[in-house]
């Protein structure tokens, strides 16, 4: 059986693509580099949108990336069920692309925050979180200046009512996110976006606060193998 | 040739911590009488032709598509001059 192929997207200004690719390989999948300027998803089984400052965060975080050639391929594929995980800037891009509702705005305290953060897993029904336990608390690094999740009251009520809040900050809200939201999913559960960084928490060797990030990748691999 | 201005502001219900920081700075600089500040963006679009109805309709599409994120922002359009 050939290994599952997970695409890792690089935009100009992406920072975390190498860590993301390494995390994918550690989980036993093949990491396939995807370039923002190509109209080509290379037949991958899932896509990881890593963090960074794509297009320099010009205009708004993710606003320009969202119209890149690669995204014009990814958006319909994701709507058709392709599993997609966006972390940090990747989450911002997913919101700008309207693959996920709401938006990420400037942190309430205005400071860029870089720290290890406790996060509670609120849903294990997504393609990327099946290997966690409901209510499990994990620790992942966060590093962002614009991570305050906002959405209108109707959208928030829908997210909460449909169990689509996937992660919530625990032990204090770092950025003023509404309802302490750290990550959400779409109705189908194939698209997940979160501000924390699972790809930075997969190996003790790197001084990571945990290896809890591994479960994102084992979750998607099991999904792909069983698909 | 015409210049069209697109002003983009966070919706009133969206927290604007940058505006709040500016509001807090003003009294420290000796300015009084300002009860609130909201910060936004201004885009100046230089058109090749006149700002007729078709051109302004296009500008509206540009604003909805790219210049503003209508999930969190409102925009207004006016022709300068």
From TrEMBL, chain A:
The keyword Acyltransferase does not apply. It catalyses: N(2)-formyl-N(1)-(5-phospho-beta-D-ribosyl)glycinamide + L-glutamine + ATP + H2O = 2-formamido-N(1)-(5-O-phospho-beta-D-ribosyl)acetamidine + L-glutamate + ADP + phosphate + H(+); L-glutamine + H2O = L-glutamate + NH4(+). Keywords: ATP-binding, Cytoplasm, Glutamine amidotransferase, Hydrolase, Ligase, Nucleotide-binding, Purine biosynthesis. InterPro entries: Class_I_gatase-like (IPR029062), PRibForGlyAmidine_synth_PurQ (IPR010075). It is found in: Cytoplasm. CDD domains: GATase1_FGAR_AT. Pfam families: GATase_5 (PF13507). One of its GO terms (cellular component) is cytoplasm. SUPFAM superfamilies: Class I glutamine amidotransferase-like (SSF52317). One of its GO terms (molecular function) is glutaminase activity. Pathway: Purine metabolism; IMP biosynthesis via de novo pathway; 5-amino-1-(5-phospho-D-ribosyl)imidazole from N(2)-formyl-N(1)-(5-phospho-D-ribosyl)glycinamide: step 1/2. Its EC number is 6.3.5.3, 3.5.1.2. GO terms for biological process: 'de novo' IMP biosynthetic process. The active site is at 88 (nucleophile), 197, 199. It comes from the Bacteria. Part of the FGAM synthase complex composed of 1 PurL, 1 PurQ and 2 PurS subunits. Part of the phosphoribosylformylglycinamidine synthase complex involved in the purines biosynthetic pathway. Catalyzes the ATP-dependent conversion of formylglycinamide ribonucleotide (FGAR) and glutamine to yield formylglycinamidine ribonucleotide (FGAM) and glutamate. The FGAM synthase complex is composed of three subunits. PurQ produces an ammonia molecule by converting glutamine to glutamate. PurL transfers the ammonia molecule to FGAR to form FGAM in an ATP-dependent manner. This is Phosphoribosylformylglycinamidine synthase subunit PurQ. It comes from Microbispora catharanthi.
TrEMBL record, chain B:
SUPFAM superfamilies: PurS-like (SSF82697). Keywords: ATP-binding, Cytoplasm, Ligase, Nucleotide-binding, Purine biosynthesis. One of its GO terms (biological process) is 'de novo' IMP biosynthetic process. It is an enzyme of class 6 (ligase). It comes from the Bacteria. It is found in: Cytoplasm. It holds the Pfam family PurS. Coiled coil: none annotated. GO terms for cellular component: cytoplasm. Pathway: Purine metabolism; IMP biosynthesis via de novo pathway; 5-amino-1-(5-phospho-D-ribosyl)imidazole from N(2)-formyl-N(1)-(5-phospho-D-ribosyl)glycinamide: step 1/2. InterPro entries: PurS, PurS-like_sf. Its EC number is 6.3.5.3. It catalyses: N(2)-formyl-N(1)-(5-phospho-beta-D-ribosyl)glycinamide + L-glutamine + ATP + H2O = 2-formamido-N(1)-(5-O-phospho-beta-D-ribosyl)acetamidine + L-glutamate + ADP + phosphate + H(+). One of its GO terms (molecular function) is phosphoribosylformylglycinamidine synthase activity. NCBIfam families: phosphoribosylformylglycinamidine synthase subunit PurS (TIGR00302), PRK05974.1 (NF004630). Part of the FGAM synthase complex composed of 1 PurL, 1 PurQ and 2 PurS subunits. Belongs to the PurS family. Part of the phosphoribosylformylglycinamidine synthase complex involved in the purines biosynthetic pathway. Catalyzes the ATP-dependent conversion of formylglycinamide ribonucleotide (FGAR) and glutamine to yield formylglycinamidine ribonucleotide (FGAM) and glutamate. The FGAM synthase complex is composed of three subunits. PurQ produces an ammonia molecule by converting glutamine to glutamate. PurL transfers the ammonia molecule to FGAR to form FGAM in an ATP-dependent manner. This is Phosphoribosylformylglycinamidine synthase subunit PurS. It comes from Microbispora catharanthi. The lineage of its organism: Bacteria, Bacillati, Actinomycetota, Actinomycetes, Streptosporangiales. The gene is purS.
């Amino acid at each position: 059986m050939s290994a599952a192929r997970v695409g890792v997207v690089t935009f100009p200004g992406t920072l975390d693509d190498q860590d993301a690719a390494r995390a994918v390989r550690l989980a036993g999948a093949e990491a396939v580099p995807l370039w923002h300027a190509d109209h080509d998803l290379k037949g991958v089984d899932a896509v990881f949108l890593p963090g960074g400052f794509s297009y320099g965060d010009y205009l708004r975080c993710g606003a320009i990336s969202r119209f890149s050639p690669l995204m014009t391929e990814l958006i319909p594929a994701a709507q058709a069920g392709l599993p997609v995980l966006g972390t940090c800037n990747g989450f911002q891009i997913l919101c700008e692309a309207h693959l996920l509702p709401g938006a990420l705005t400037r942190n309430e305290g205005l400071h860029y925050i870089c720290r290890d953060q406790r996060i509670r897993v609120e849903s294990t029904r997504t393609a990327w979180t099946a290997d966690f336990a409901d209510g499990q608390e994990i620790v992942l690094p966060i590093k962002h200046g614009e991570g305050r999740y906002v959405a209108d009251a109707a959208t928030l009520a829908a997210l909460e009512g449909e169990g689509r809040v996937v992660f919530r900050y625990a032990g204090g809200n770092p950025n003023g996110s509404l309802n302490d939201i750290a990550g959400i999913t779409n109705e189908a559960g194939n698209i997940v976006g979160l501000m924390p960084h699972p790809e930075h928490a997969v190996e003790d060797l790197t001084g990571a606060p945990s290896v809890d990030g591994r479960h994102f990748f084992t979750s998607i691999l099991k999904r792909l193998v069983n698909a | 040739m015409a210049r069209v201005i697109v002003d983009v502001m966070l919706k009133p219900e969206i927290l604007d911590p940058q505006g709040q920081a500016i509001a807090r700075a003003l009294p420290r600089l000796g300015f009084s009488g300002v009860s609130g500040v909201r910060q936004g963006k201004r885009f100046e679009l230089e058109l090749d032709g006149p700002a007729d109805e078709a051109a302004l309709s296009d500008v509206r599409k540009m604003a909805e598509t790219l210049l503003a994120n209508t999930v969190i922002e409102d925009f207004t359009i006016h022709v300068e001059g």
